Amino acid sequence: MSLLTHSFKHVVILGALIAWVLLTLGGLAYSSAQRQKEFDPAQTLALAAMSAEFAPAVTTSMHAQYPSLAKTVVHIQQADCSCNFSNNIHVDRIDTVLDKSAYHSVHVSVSDIPKEIILPSLPAVMVFDEQGQLGYFGPYSSGYFCSTDTAFVDRFLTNVIENKHVGSAVVSDGYGCYCANASTTS
Question: Which residues does the UniProt record annotate as the domain DUF6436 (predicted)?
Protein backbone atom coordinates (compact mmCIF):
# COMPACT_ATOMS: atom_id res chain seq x y z
CA MET A 1 0.00 0.00 0.00
CA SER A 2 2.83 2.42 0.76
CA LEU A 3 4.29 1.82 -2.73
CA LEU A 4 0.97 2.91 -4.26
CA THR A 5 0.84 5.98 -2.02
CA HIS A 6 4.44 6.84 -2.91
CA SER A 7 3.65 6.56 -6.66
CA PHE A 8 0.52 8.63 -6.23
CA LYS A 9 2.55 11.39 -4.53
CA HIS A 10 4.97 11.42 -7.46
CA VAL A 11 2.09 11.70 -9.94
CA VAL A 12 0.55 14.57 -7.97
CA ILE A 13 3.89 16.39 -7.71
CA LEU A 14 4.61 15.85 -11.41
CA GLY A 15 1.09 17.03 -12.31
CA ALA A 16 1.49 20.14 -10.15
CA LEU A 17 4.89 20.88 -11.71
CA ILE A 18 3.49 20.54 -15.24
CA ALA A 19 0.52 22.77 -14.34
CA TRP A 20 2.89 25.39 -12.87
CA VAL A 21 5.07 25.38 -16.00
CA LEU A 22 2.03 25.68 -18.29
CA LEU A 23 0.56 28.53 -16.24
CA THR A 24 3.91 30.35 -16.21
CA LEU A 25 4.34 29.96 -19.96
CA GLY A 26 0.74 31.01 -20.54
CA GLY A 27 1.24 34.10 -18.39
CA LEU A 28 4.39 35.06 -20.27
CA ALA A 29 2.66 34.56 -23.62
CA TYR A 30 -0.31 36.65 -22.47
CA SER A 31 1.98 39.40 -21.19
CA SER A 32 3.92 39.47 -24.46
CA ALA A 33 0.73 39.49 -26.52
CA GLN A 34 -0.49 42.55 -24.61
CA ARG A 35 2.57 44.49 -25.81
CA GLN A 36 2.06 43.58 -29.48
CA LYS A 37 0.94 46.64 -31.43
CA GLU A 38 1.15 48.17 -34.87
CA PHE A 39 4.12 50.50 -35.34
CA ASP A 40 1.97 53.09 -37.13
CA PRO A 41 -1.61 52.35 -35.99
CA ALA A 42 -3.13 55.58 -37.36
CA GLN A 43 -1.03 55.41 -40.57
CA THR A 44 0.32 58.93 -39.95
CA LEU A 45 3.89 57.97 -40.83
CA ALA A 46 2.77 55.93 -43.85
CA LEU A 47 0.73 58.82 -45.25
CA ALA A 48 3.45 61.39 -44.61
CA ALA A 49 6.13 59.16 -46.18
CA MET A 50 4.20 59.09 -49.46
CA SER A 51 5.27 62.68 -50.05
CA ALA A 52 8.50 63.19 -52.00
CA GLU A 53 9.39 65.92 -49.49
CA PHE A 54 9.17 63.65 -46.43
CA ALA A 55 12.73 62.23 -46.35
CA PRO A 56 14.39 65.58 -47.15
CA ALA A 57 12.27 67.25 -44.44
CA VAL A 58 13.33 64.63 -41.87
CA THR A 59 16.96 65.10 -42.92
CA THR A 60 16.70 68.89 -42.64
CA SER A 61 15.02 68.70 -39.21
CA MET A 62 17.60 66.26 -37.89
CA HIS A 63 20.52 68.29 -39.30
CA ALA A 64 19.20 71.37 -37.47
CA GLN A 65 19.52 69.48 -34.19
CA TYR A 66 22.47 67.21 -35.09
CA PRO A 67 24.65 69.01 -37.69
CA SER A 68 26.97 66.07 -38.38
CA LEU A 69 24.80 63.10 -39.39
CA ALA A 70 26.89 61.71 -42.25
CA LYS A 71 27.51 57.99 -41.69
CA THR A 72 25.36 57.94 -38.55
CA VAL A 73 22.80 55.55 -37.10
CA VAL A 74 20.40 57.21 -34.65
CA HIS A 75 18.90 54.83 -32.10
CA ILE A 76 15.70 56.29 -30.61
CA GLN A 77 14.14 55.01 -27.41
CA GLN A 78 11.63 56.17 -24.83
CA ALA A 79 12.63 55.81 -21.19
CA ASP A 80 9.51 54.05 -19.94
CA CYS A 81 9.09 51.66 -22.90
CA SER A 82 9.12 48.00 -21.88
CA CYS A 83 10.19 47.05 -25.42
CA ASN A 84 13.64 48.65 -24.98
CA PHE A 85 14.88 45.52 -23.23
CA SER A 86 14.40 43.18 -26.20
CA ASN A 87 15.39 45.92 -28.63
CA ASN A 88 18.80 46.38 -27.02
CA ILE A 89 19.89 43.15 -28.73
CA HIS A 90 19.38 44.93 -32.09
CA VAL A 91 21.18 48.04 -30.89
CA ASP A 92 24.20 46.06 -29.68
CA ARG A 93 24.34 44.04 -32.91
CA ILE A 94 24.13 47.17 -35.08
CA ASP A 95 26.79 48.91 -32.99
CA THR A 96 29.06 45.88 -33.53
CA VAL A 97 28.53 46.12 -37.31
CA LEU A 98 29.22 49.86 -37.20
CA ASP A 99 32.47 49.31 -35.28
CA LYS A 100 33.75 47.57 -38.44
CA SER A 101 32.79 50.46 -40.72
CA ALA A 102 33.25 54.21 -40.77
CA TYR A 103 29.73 54.67 -39.38
CA HIS A 104 28.90 55.55 -35.79
CA SER A 105 25.91 55.43 -33.48
CA VAL A 106 24.05 58.13 -31.63
CA HIS A 107 21.71 57.00 -28.84
CA VAL A 108 18.91 59.46 -28.12
CA SER A 109 15.67 59.74 -26.27
CA VAL A 110 12.52 60.50 -28.21
CA SER A 111 12.49 63.92 -26.50
CA ASP A 112 15.73 64.70 -28.39
CA ILE A 113 14.07 64.25 -31.78
CA PRO A 114 12.63 67.37 -33.44
CA LYS A 115 8.89 67.58 -32.74
CA GLU A 116 7.95 67.96 -36.42
CA ILE A 117 9.24 64.46 -37.21
CA ILE A 118 6.40 61.96 -37.24
CA LEU A 119 7.34 59.04 -35.02
CA PRO A 120 4.26 57.10 -33.89
CA SER A 121 6.00 54.33 -31.93
CA LEU A 122 9.28 53.35 -30.36
CA PRO A 123 11.91 52.01 -30.38
CA ALA A 124 12.92 53.27 -33.80
CA VAL A 125 16.06 53.85 -35.82
CA MET A 126 17.30 56.28 -38.46
CA VAL A 127 20.24 55.55 -40.75
CA PHE A 128 21.97 58.44 -42.53
CA ASP A 129 24.27 57.71 -45.48
CA GLU A 130 27.72 59.12 -46.21
CA GLN A 131 26.19 62.30 -47.64
CA GLY A 132 24.10 62.75 -44.48
CA GLN A 133 20.84 61.88 -46.26
CA LEU A 134 18.18 59.66 -44.69
CA GLY A 135 18.67 56.06 -45.84
CA TYR A 136 16.28 54.26 -43.44
CA PHE A 137 13.67 55.32 -40.91
CA GLY A 138 11.36 53.02 -38.96
CA PRO A 139 11.27 50.14 -36.51
CA TYR A 140 14.12 47.74 -35.98
CA SER A 141 11.97 44.67 -36.57
CA SER A 142 8.54 43.14 -36.41
CA GLY A 143 6.98 39.92 -35.21
CA TYR A 144 5.92 38.37 -31.97
CA PHE A 145 9.31 38.74 -30.29
CA CYS A 146 10.70 41.52 -32.55
CA SER A 147 13.76 39.33 -32.89
CA THR A 148 16.81 39.99 -34.98
CA ASP A 149 15.52 37.30 -37.37
CA THR A 150 12.70 39.62 -38.43
CA ALA A 151 14.74 42.82 -38.54
CA PHE A 152 13.70 45.43 -41.12
CA VAL A 153 16.72 47.64 -40.54
CA ASP A 154 19.20 44.91 -41.51
CA ARG A 155 17.74 44.79 -45.00
CA PHE A 156 18.74 48.41 -45.51
CA LEU A 157 21.73 48.98 -43.22
CA THR A 158 24.20 46.99 -45.30
CA ASN A 159 23.15 48.74 -48.51
CA VAL A 160 23.44 52.16 -46.89
CA ILE A 161 26.86 51.38 -45.41
CA GLU A 162 28.09 50.07 -48.78
CA ASN A 163 26.47 53.06 -50.55
CA LYS A 164 24.30 50.74 -52.65
CA HIS A 165 20.95 52.16 -51.59
CA VAL A 166 18.67 54.19 -53.81
CA GLY A 167 16.90 56.94 -51.90
CA SER A 168 15.28 56.63 -48.51
CA ALA A 169 13.34 53.72 -47.08
CA VAL A 170 10.65 54.66 -44.59
CA VAL A 171 9.03 51.62 -42.99
CA SER A 172 5.81 52.14 -41.11
CA ASP A 173 4.31 48.68 -41.45
CA GLY A 174 5.17 46.55 -38.48
CA TYR A 175 3.41 44.57 -35.78
CA GLY A 176 5.40 43.75 -32.68
CA CYS A 177 6.60 45.12 -29.38
CA TYR A 178 6.26 48.88 -29.72
CA CYS A 179 5.37 51.65 -27.30
CA ALA A 180 3.30 54.62 -28.35
CA ASN A 181 5.35 57.80 -28.61
CA ALA A 182 4.45 59.57 -25.37
CA SER A 183 5.57 62.95 -26.75
CA THR A 184 2.80 62.78 -29.39
CA THR A 185 0.08 61.46 -27.07
CA SER A 186 0.46 64.01 -24.30
Answer: 61-180
